[in-house]
Structures are given as C-alpha cells and as structure tokens.
Amino acid sequence: MGKHRSSLPALCLISLALLWTAAPAAAAGEPDVEARADRDPDPGDAFALTFTIRSHQTASYTIIVSPRPEFAFVDMSNGSKTAEIPGGTTSDLSFDMQVSRSARQGSYLVSYSVQRDNATIKMGTVEIKVGSLGSCTSFMVLVPLSALAVGVAVARRPGR
Questions:
Q1: What local confidence, expressed as pLDDT, does residue 97 receive?
Q2: Helix (H, G, I), strand (E, B) or coil at 13
C-alpha cells in the first residue's frame, strides 16, 4: 500500500505536466472569432453583421448564422460564408441583414457556428440591439408639447 501512495503524487504531476503542454497546442488550433453589428438598427433598417476570424493555421473556415425570425439576409449568402484564411492572419466575413418592420425594440441573440474543413469547432451568439434603446426622442418631443398645451389651457381659463 505504501507504493501506491508514493506513486500517486508523481502520477498527478505527470498528468498536470501533460495538460499544461497540451492546452496551448489545442488552443492554438482554434481561431479567435469576434462577432459584431456595425450599428444598432431600428425596425426596418439594414445593418452588417461582421465576423473577424484570426486564424492560427491555414484552413477553410465557414461561418453559419442562424438568425431569428426578426432578421433576414439581404445578401445572397443565405447565412453561410466560407473563406480560406492563411495561418497567422485575420479576415472579416460580413453578412448584410435587415430587421423586419414588425420587430420590437430590444436585444436579440443571433446564433452562429464556425466550421473548419466542414467540422464545427466553435459556437456562439452575438447580441443585436434593435431600436433606440435609451433614446428619449419621443419623451423630448412630448413633454414640451404637453407643457405648451397646459400653458395654453391655463392662459385661456376664464375667471382670471
């Protein structure tokens, strides 16, 4: 039983060393992917959804976008674009999209997957904010008009 106890720490150290050396090699194979919209669109507006891929190895990468019903593709991609990206370089893949006129103001998550040589290697979501979130445009127009209406009503009030 004493033999097993002394070999357990050694086995743990060997396992940690293998994990330590294998982790950077595994991470180096996956590309870095950043997804973003060029702006926060309003209902009915068009926008570009861009994916920046930083490749650590030369490969054919495909981005597949699964939009919600509130979004449609304006370009001919139908949600899929492929590019050969050399190792150590960065490339952008953009999708021209449009928000439906019936979409409500709010945040929507759009799912995507990244494939390398026809195998899915990464999945994620990108948040699209629809409408002027935090904008007080209607409030800024209605409050002065309401104040003007109240002022006119008070000024015309009989008995003054």
A1: 95
A2: helix
